[in-house]
Amino acid sequence: MSSLSLLAPAKINLFLLINGCRPDGYHLIFTMFQKISLWDEIELSVGQGEKRRIYLECPDSELTSGSDNLAYQAAELFLEKAGLDLAIKILLKKRIPIGGGLGGGSSDAASVLKGLNELAGFPFNGAYLHFLGCSLGADVPFFLLETPTAVGRGIGTELEVVNTPHRWYVLVYPGFSVSTRWAYKNYVLTGQDEDTIFDADEAIRNAMWRNDLEQVIIARYPEMGRIKAELMALGAEAALMSGSGSTVLGSFLSQEEAHRAAYSLEVNKGLHALLVESL
């Protein structure tokens, strides 16, 4: 039996603009993904010459271990497309908050795809893995990239690698999740298509630290607006919701400032704050 130990990083969105909606209901977005120093841990094992099966274990997690888990779906899809009969075991140790807009499930799926491709002798190239990732979820293709930062267009799967300054972030998880489906369904489209801007750098500068979904989500969950204000009061250069929430992030230029802010939020406000950095 062959095995790999994998780290599946979380992501944050440094901006998220909604530009339109496709006939199938998917929204067209303009966003910047940034991988951060928060990981799920995955032990991936493959046995050959056995009946095809997938065993997923998620200890100390509320996640299910069945076919509605993205890591399971990734393994199932890989076996189907590769035409392989393998016994796969996935031990998934969750560190990334579930339903917090940090992409944990998508990152797990991408890690399983990449890990199985390696253990099976690389039957698929990067372009085909991207194709498989798109069928699993809009955030999965970003996590298949080796790069830490990328701009996403379309539904988030049209990716362009970019460079950003190193930053420290304080992540505040308010203790509840927000449904991505609900957030997009209740968003009222008012923006213009950012792809009409010729200068990509200008488009990024104009979009930085904006999240169009905040207006609908903070209206329902005002606690998230209060967390944003607390982060700004503690010296963050910017504060915004990551993705469709519920995690709120504050960006800091130094580790010391970020550490003081995280400590203050935990001690004085009783909030769950994580100190991370960009990868």
Record the SSE blueprint.
Elements: E1 2-21, E2 27-48, E3 53-57, H1 70-82, E4 86-93, H2 104-119, H3 126-136, H4 140-144, E5 149-153, E6 158-161, E7 168-173, H5 180-186, H6 200-207, H7 214-220, H8 222-233, E8 238-241, E9 248-252, H9 255-269, E10 272-277
Parallel strand pairs: 3-4
Antiparallel strand pairs: 1-2, 2-4, 2-5, 5-6, 7-9, 7-10, 8-9
Q: Tally the helices: what do you get?
A: 9
- The residue fraction in helices comes out at 25-40%
Q: How large is the share of residues in beta strands?
A: 25-35%
What is the oligomer described by this structure? single chain
Termini separation (Å)? 32 Å
Written as H for each helix and E for each strand, in order along the chain, the element string is EEEHEHHHEEEHHHHEEHE
The parts where pLDDT drops under 50 for at least 5 residues are none
Domain tally: 2
* CATH architecture assignment of the largest domain: 2-Layer Sandwich
Q: Using the CA coordinates, give the radius of gyration.
A: 19 Å
Structural class: alpha+beta
